[in-house]
Amino acid sequence: MKKVIKYLSVFLILVLVTGCSLLETKTKEYSLNGVHITMEDGMKEEKDEDYTVFLSNDNYIFSALKESITILSSVGLDENSTVLDYTKLVLKANDFNKTPIEKDGLTYYTYDSTVEGTKFFYSTFTYKTEDAFWLVNFACLYKDKSKYESKFIKWAKTIQFD
User: Fold this and answer.
1) What is the pTM of this model?
2) 20 to 30 Å CA-CA from 113: which of 10, 21, 145, 157?
């Protein structure tokens, strides 16, 4: 019993000294096709013709789609359009009756969807670069929403583009 208390005490001291970093998941910066994001280590790149970037692991996915402003001009967007304009257009095109969230420098919306009998939670963030708008999605099983929703926001704040 004394050994257990001794080891537990040493562990607790280490946690206090390191600021709980022993309990944190390792992160990694992923840089693919002009997108840079810092998120949990262990993501695998997958090829998907529908996305500029697609990463996944066993718990969630990350995807990014670059949409050229030149191409979007056919639907009324141009270089003077804002991220909010683009987000509203995406919501309308997908028949989502949602109001975009603008918070902490991010523009996004969330939704749930059932695919082949499985319910998922999605967080969709929008960005603007000099020549394009970006649609970035994170998704996880709906049952894991409380575990990942705040992480999706944290990771979205790290996104940068070339």
Assistant:
1) 0.84
2) 157
Which CATH number belongs to the domain containing residue 121 in this structure? 3.40.1000.10
Residue with tokens 């208390």: 5
**Tokens representing residue 136 in the block:** 């970035």
Q: What is the mean pLDDT of each run of 10 residues along the chain (162 residues)?
A: 46 48 76 97 94 97 97 95 97 94 97 96 98 98 98 98 95
* Alpha-carbon radius of gyration of the chain: 19
Number of separate domains in the chain? 1
Residue 64 within any structural domain of the chain: yes
Please tell me the distance from the alpha carbon of residue 133 to that of residue 127, in angstroms, as a whole number.
6
Q: Cα–Cα distance between 39 and 137 in angstroms, integer? A: 13
